[in-house]
Each structure stands twice: as C-alpha cells, then as structure tokens.
Specification:
By secondary structure, the protein is α/β, with parallel strands linked by helices. It has 2 domains: 38 residues; 181 residues, Endonuclease, Chain A (2-Layer Sandwich). The protein has an 8-stranded mixed β-sheet with strand order 2-1-8-7-6-3-4-5, with helices on both faces. It is elongated and about 85 Å long. About 7% of the residues have low confidence.
C-alpha cells in the first residue's frame, strides 16, 4: 500500500508538472504571436554553445544595420562583404560600412550581383569612383558575380576578420534596413565562420571587376 500511495503521489506530481508546462507553453505561444505581429526583423545570434536568441524588433530599430556596422568597426584585418543589391536608399550604408573597415587599416573585399539596369551601373560606378584610391592600392577589392539575365549572387554575408559573421536576408536598400521583414543570424562559431570564409573567398575569385562587366556590356 505504501508503494502504491507513493506511485500515486508521483503520478499526481507529474500531472501537475505537465499541466504547468502546457500552460507555460501556451503563454509563450501567445507572447510570440503578439511579438510577431509587431516584428519586421528577427535577429538571431548563435554561438558555439548553440545559444539562440530571437529578438523581434519594430521597424526603424535598425538591428541588422547596427550589426553590419559593428562588424565593420571591429575589423582589424579583413572585412568580407557579399551583398547582391544596393539602391540609392542603401548607398550611404554601403559607404559607411566600407569606410568603417578601411579607416582603422583593415582590408575589405566587397562582392555584388552583376548590375543589370542603368541605375544599378551608375550606383556601382559611383562606389568604385568614391573608393578609387583604396582600390588602386589594394586595400579594397570590388567584384561582381553573375551573368546578364541569368544566375548571380544572392547570398548576403558579412565576415569580420574570419572571427564573426552575419548571414541575413537584407540587401543594402532603404526598405531592407528599415521596414522590410528580414532575418539575420550572427555567429562567432569558429567552424561556421571558417566555412563562410572559405565559401566567400572561393566565389570571390570567380567574380569580375566592374571594368570587365562594363567591357562585356559594351561588346554586345
């Protein structure tokens, strides 16, 4: 009888614990639903201990933009940037990102999708012109990936000194960094950052300079 009573007590305790857990899950689901209705960006950090942190943020909070700029400021050796699209609304962020890395003495490698429209070409001509001196002395390398009307760069990756990286859905456009629904994953995992660095360097070596892109356009 004593054993049976003890078993019943444990069963009741488990039932109570299960009920409390289900109530807590329901509360969390409601909280996430309310947060999601306000969110325009979900920002995720992942470290070697696999700790994940989801921060729903309201528009104009600029969480992804802040992380991009922090990565550039923290670069002491080499900033790698893969951003397919840049618009006039995001050009200031592009130049700030590049300047933050170059001013302390780091090198920067920036890779874009091949520009197709006349507006895109003008933006990239401006960027190459604004940083012409840094390009000439080798501090800044700029490349373009893709073929006209076909495949091209689509990944958005920023790597700081092969030490920290941000992978996100955001291009450098005004909407992407302020009001679009975007997601970003920042990591200091040595294994993940190394894999991203190898990926970037491999793709970068297959990409073209803007002069090569423009020469191909003129040859058509």
């Amino acid at each position: 009888m004593t054993d049976l009573g003890s078993t019943v007590d444990k069963y009741q305790q488990l039932e109570e614990l299960n009920l409390a857990l289900n109530l807590r899950i329901a509360e969390l689901r409601q909280h996430l639903a309310e947060a999601e209705s306000r969110a325009v960006q979900l920002y995720v950090t992942l470290d070697d201990a696999t700790n994940v942190r989801l921060l729903p943020v309201r528009d104009y909070d600029g969480q992804i933009r802040d992380e991009l700029m922090n990565l550039a400021r923290q670069s002491h050796a080499h900033l790698r940037v893969a951003i397919p699209y840049v618009t006039r609304g995001g050009y200031r962020d592009l130049t700030a990102l590049t300047t933050f890395a170059l001013e302390p003495g780091a090198r920067a490698s920036v890779m874009f999708r091949r520009p197709d429209s006349g507006v895109d070409v003008r933006i990239h001509k401006s960027f190459n012109s604004d940083f012409r001196r840094q390009i000439e002395i080798g501090k800044l390398r700029v490349r373009y990936m893709g073929q006209e009307g076909r495949n091209g760069l689509h990944a958005k990756v920023v790597i700081s000194d092969s030490r920290e990286a941000l992978v996100s859905s955001a291009n450098l456009t005004g909407y992407a960094l302020t009001s679009n629904v975007e997601v970003g994953l920042a990591t200091r995992s040595t294994r993940i950052v190394h894999a991203l660095t190898v990926w970037f360097d491999t793709v970068f070596e297959q990409a073209y300079t803007l002069d090569a892109v423009l020469a191909h356009n003129g040859a058509r």
